[in-house]
Design brief:
Helix content is 39%, strand content 15%. With 282 residues, the chain is of the alpha/beta class. Strands 3-4-5-6-7-8-9-10 form an 8-stranded parallel beta sheet. A two-stranded antiparallel ribbon has the order 1-2. Helix 1 packs parallel to helix 2, helix 2 packs across helix 3 and helix 7 packs across helix 8. It holds the Pfam family Aldo_ket_red. It is an enzyme of class 1 (oxidoreductase). One of its GO terms (molecular function) is oxidoreductase activity. This is 2,5-didehydrogluconate reductase (2-dehydro-L-gulonate-forming).
Length: 282
């Protein structure tokens, strides 16, 4: 499995757009200086991918962090990969296009690198997907994809889609390894991306992960993030603390053995910390 050897390494999506293997997520980080600093710090540390969503209510702060971060790092907007997502109440053709423009305006950007349907709301995601295809074909967005889609959602979407999703961002960590979904996505050229890769901190004291970490002179968090990359999964750990932002990204100077990868895979229990994509009511 080809894996990233540097924080700025990218994988090529099926439409030729290159997306960083590693990025920062800002779920539940409220507007304010902490958020702006987190984004700015990530860019200063060499992160080139930033993931937000309309429902996080923090696109303005993310945009501010991006502007300050670009200026301080002396890099251009083209060097960054920015993702946002359309929320459930906006899943309709016109509504989704309007939601895209609203996200752009809050972020202060001309276009997004990736726009995702946040959840597979039954009976509504196909119209939203048609809107994403329209935005994509008009050159308004570089790549389009989905989030929290199971295999049957993807099959259903692709029956009518002109363009298949480039990315599927799902909950993925050693307790929810998503192997079947991963195989399905790989077979269809859809890049899998992990949200909540550290299971919201619940795995950081796990004895196996700590043992493996010790062998490599790393932390359990770094081992999990490395496991993602070696599985060919894009990962976007969330943190607002500068030392943690730096630590999370310090995973390119070691490699997990096949045995260690298998041991981590074996921790799977199909346990979620987030909602079940087949059973949610929002």
């Amino acid at each position: 499995m080809m894996t990233a050897t540097h924080l700025q390494d990218r994988t090529e999506l099926h439409n030729g757009v290159k997306m960083p293997w590693f990025g920062i997520g800002v779920f539940k980080v409220e507007e304010g200086p902490e958020l702006v600093n987190a984004v700015k710090t990530a860019i200063a540390h060499g992160y080139r991918s930033i993931d937000t969503a309309a429902i996080y209510g923090n696109e303005e702060g993310v945009g501010e962090g991006i502007r300050q971060g670009l200026q301080e790092a002396g890099i251009s907007r083209e060097d960054l990969f920015v993702t946002s997502k359309v929320w459930n109440e906006d899943l309709g053709y016109e509504e989704t296009i309007a939601a895209y423009e609203k996200s752009l305006s809050k972020l202060g950007l001309d276009q997004l690198d990736l726009f995702l349907i946040h959840w597979p709301v039954e009976g509504r995601y196909k119209e939203a997907w048609r809107a994403l295809e329209t935005l994509y074909e008009a050159g308004r967005v570089k790549a389009i994809g989905v989030s929290n889609f199971q295999i049957h959602h993807l099959e259903d979407l692709m029956k009518d889609a002109k363009i298949k999703p480039m990315v599927n961002q799902v909950e993925c960590h050693p307790r929810l390894t998503q192997k079947e979904l991963q195989s399905f996505c790989r077979a269809h050229g859809i890049q899998l991306e992990a949200w909540s890769p550290l299971m919201q901190g619940q795995l950081l004291d796990h004895h196996l992960l700590k043992d493996i970490a010790k062998k490599h002179g790393k932390t359990a968090a770094q081992v999990i993030l490395r496991w993602d990359l070696q599985n060919g999964v894009i990962t976007i750990p969330k943190s607002t603390k500068a030392h943690r932002i730096a630590e999370n990204a310090d995973i390119f100077d070691f490699e997990l053995t096949n045995e260690e990868m298998a041991q981590i895979d074996a921790l799977n229990e199909n346990t979620r910390v987030g909602p079940d994509p087949d059973n949610f009511d929002f």
